[in-house]
């Protein structure tokens, strides 16, 4: 539910198994509260002012991340998300920016007291290497299994068994209620799974006018798939340049040569190979410059070079 995703320099601390969770991770694991003020659906999702066990002055993940000196963009996606649904977002990153090199994420499991998954402090996802996305290996893709689910250790896993109303998305009415910390283990640890025959595995709730039941939520089953994650390069910066070139009436030999360079650059950039793609854009610029006033009129060349500058900037080539 409501994944938090942030891009940074590789040193942003999220959590460590065996150590107590931060308040920010507690907010995410117990209530899916990431502090994204753009999230307007109930429960109120702002970092501060939660009427709960949390200290009003304690920073939530969103603020911790913004206060981290070497951060890039971050995002919070959606709200309660049903199985099979896809969430996505696009970040504008610069492969040369030291604060755009790694990605971390944290996701709450609902319903639960404090089940979550994500990247720990020492294993953020490396995005760029040698000027290439994923070192030129294509999209980053992986499956999160039930065995990857963690318990934040911040709340007892009562699941409302004794009339408690503490389990988010099942019966909890107010964020932050529950027995804190988890008496079973107050540190982040592998989640033991939901209580067999307990309120979650036998329960249902109404949300958004739909009855949701959780009979298949035993993620301790072998091979249980929780989530599928894909991180890939999205470009398009060269498309405008290609369209401009195609709209011109240049000498066919020159046009073919320039078009080939742009198609190659597009292929390289789409594949995340920024060094080669930027080099190819540079070769395109050199050819345009060399032909300016010869096979390419000066005004036309200026238009191409301006569009090239935009494309180069969008892909961090400058
Ligand atoms: Ca717990
Ligand atoms: Ca709770």
Summarize the structure.
By secondary structure, this protein is of the alpha+beta class. The protein has helices at about 25-30, 60-65, 235-245, 250-270, 275-290, 300-315; strands at about 5-10, 70-75, 100-110, 115-120, 125, 130, 130-135, 140-145, 150, 190, 205, 210-215, 225-230. A hairpin with a 6-residue loop joins β3 (about 100-110) and β4 (about 115-120).
List the defining traits of the structure above.
single chain; seven-stranded antiparallel sheet; 318 residues; Immunoglobulin-like; binds calcium ion; elongated; alpha+beta; 6 helices; 2 domains; two-stranded antiparallel ribbon
Roughly how many Å apart are the termini? 38 Å
* Helix percentage range: 25-40%
Which of globular, elongated, flat, extended, rod-shaped describes the shape?
elongated
| Total beta strand runs | 13
CATH topology of the largest domain: Immunoglobulin-like
* SSE series: EHHEEEEEEEEEEEEHHHH
Identify every distinct bound molecule in the structure, by name, code or SMILES: calcium ion
Give the class-level CATH name of the largest domain.
Answer: Mainly Beta
Q: Structurally, how many domains make up the residues?
A: 2
Rg measurement, Å: 25 Å
Low-confidence stretches: 36-46, 48-57
Largest sheet: 7 strands, antiparallel
> What percentage of amino acids are in beta strands?
15-25%
CATH arch. level architecture of the largest domain: Sandwich
Number of alpha- plus pi-helical segments: 6
Estimate the mean pLDDT confidence: 88
- Strand-pairing-aware structural class: alpha+beta
């Amino acid at each position: 539910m409501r994944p938090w995703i942030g891009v940074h320099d590789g040193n942003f601390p999220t959590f460590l198994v065996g150590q107590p969770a931060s308040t920010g991770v507690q907010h995410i694991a117990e209530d899916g509260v990431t502090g994204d003020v753009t999230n307007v659906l109930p429960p109120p999702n702002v970092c501060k002012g939660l009427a709960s066990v949390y200290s009003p002055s304690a920073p939530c993940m969103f603020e911790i991340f913004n206060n981290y000196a070497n951060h890039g963009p971050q995002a919070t996606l959606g709200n309660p998300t049903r199985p099979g649904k896809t969430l996505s977002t696009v970040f504008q990153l610069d492969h040369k920016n030291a604060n755009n090199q790694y990605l971390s994420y944290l996701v709450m499991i609902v319903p639960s007291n404090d089940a979550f998954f994500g990247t720990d402090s020492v294993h953020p996802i490396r995005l760029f290497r040698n000027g290439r996305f994923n070192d030129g290996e294509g999209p980053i893709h992986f499956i999160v299994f039930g065995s990857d689910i963690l318990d934040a250790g911040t709340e007892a896993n009562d699941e409302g068994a004794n009339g408690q109303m503490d389990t988010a998305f099942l019966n909890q009415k107010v964020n932050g209620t529950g027995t804190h910390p988890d008496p079973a283990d107050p540190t982040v640890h592998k989640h033991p799974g939901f209580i067999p025959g307990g309120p979650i595995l036998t329960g249902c709730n109404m949300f958004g006018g739909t009855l949701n039941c959780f009979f298949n939520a035993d993620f301790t089953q072998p091979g249980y798939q929780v989530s599928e994650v894909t991180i890939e390069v999205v470009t398009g910066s060269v498309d405008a340049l290609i369209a401009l070139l195609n709209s011109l009436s240049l000498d066919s030999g020159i046009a073919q040569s320039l078009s080939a360079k742009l198609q190659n650059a597009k292929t390289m950039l789409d594949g995340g190979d920024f060094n080669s793609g930027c080099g190819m854009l540079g070769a395109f610029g050199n050819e345009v410059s060399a032909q300016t006033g010869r096979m390419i009129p000066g005004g036309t060349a200026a238009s191409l070079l301006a569009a090239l500058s935009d494309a180069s900037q969008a892909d961090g080539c400058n």
